[in-house]
Records
---
Amino acid sequence: MRYSIIHKTWFEFDEAPGAVIQRLHLTPRDFPGQQVVEWRIDIDGGSLELETADYHGNRVHLCRCDPFAGSVAITCRGVLEVDDLGGIVGQHDGDVPLAQFLQPTQLSAAGGRLRLLAREMESLQRSEDLSEPALMHDLSARIRGCIAYTKDVTDVTTTAEQAMELGAGVCQDHVHAFLTIARRLGFAARYVSGYLMMDDTNIQTASHAWAEVHLDGLGWVGFDISNAISPDHRYIKLATGFDYADVVPVSGVRFGAGGEQISTTITMEQ
């Protein structure tokens, strides 16, 4: 399947800042089942200063906004080819050792509710003759049962345990809770950010998130907890990391007073 994507992010400043540096995780790379045909980033009110890769292998750009600009628009656009591999990405080939993906993070540390769920899953793991993929799908269903998909009740700083306490959240919260339990069960697991081609609209206001778990004989396998499936040809991967903090689409430092308003539009077409 071939897709074209346009991802626009606007920053409107209440007072023009003296300087703004942004880090962008907005450029996909080739993966098994995913080929980048073309991709470019345009900055209105700034310029790209550096392209590099982080320790997860993600492509990263640094953007410098024009001094005292009142607004900045970042537009990414490109074309990708995607095949349906049933969520199977393959063996680990990154620079980060698999053992590091077993460690909790600030956003995916277990509190009382997650430890209880982990004990339930450990009991299931010992008592049932489940395959590893089946165990992960069962975990995915339990996370959805604990955290109802609800917008505007959590934000990017919400931890997995806090989302469990609220009983509500979005895909980011589902992934963090899933990662927490999968790691406690002994599986290397990572956060994935990207795009999902929706059935009812081609215009969205946010990217998507899912998890990948390293399973025996298969390597990395994807699980979209929010939608109860493994990623197929409708999914495009942007970046991977230990949690959301490693894959934030746009983050940075601003020098100057005043607030800012941020808006995002993603147009994805087949």
---
Amino acid sequence: MRKKCNLVAAVALLLTASLALAAEKRWVSSEGTTLKTEASATSDFVADLLVGTEVAVVESGGRWLKVRTGVGKEGWVYAGRVSETPPAAEVAGGDDPLFGANLQKSQINTAKTDSARSIRGLSPDTEKYAKNHGTPELYKRSLDGILARKVTAQELRAFLKEGKIGEFAQGQGGGK
């Protein structure tokens, strides 16, 4: 009888652990996230996942998570591209010249004034100071050029891959 109770307790514990893992939800937080057949950036493509898509964690493999979508697709996603909380509808400041619409799709949790201050270039006071102190036109043109730069999804992906950053990093549990 004691063995039967231990077996029932063990099964109950396993069932509880399985349900807890199955109930673990995550949300896609990065544009360009793809579901893969294996825990590797170079594995075959299963599906594109839109920002805000809810997924259920099936298995954890280091920096990769095996997930199931609401429409029943299953595969691996890089853990850095999902969040434990649902994303905000959008981030304020979408008219930014540097990031444009991409900033709205980002799930960076910053205050509007902080993000605007850091990416919009010179404030009126700073610009006035620069003019009064003879900041060379070359610097202004350089800053304007940087602020006008747009980065495509392909350029960003190539940069991450070349630098072995994020899901393209090697070692440290990069695989399953």
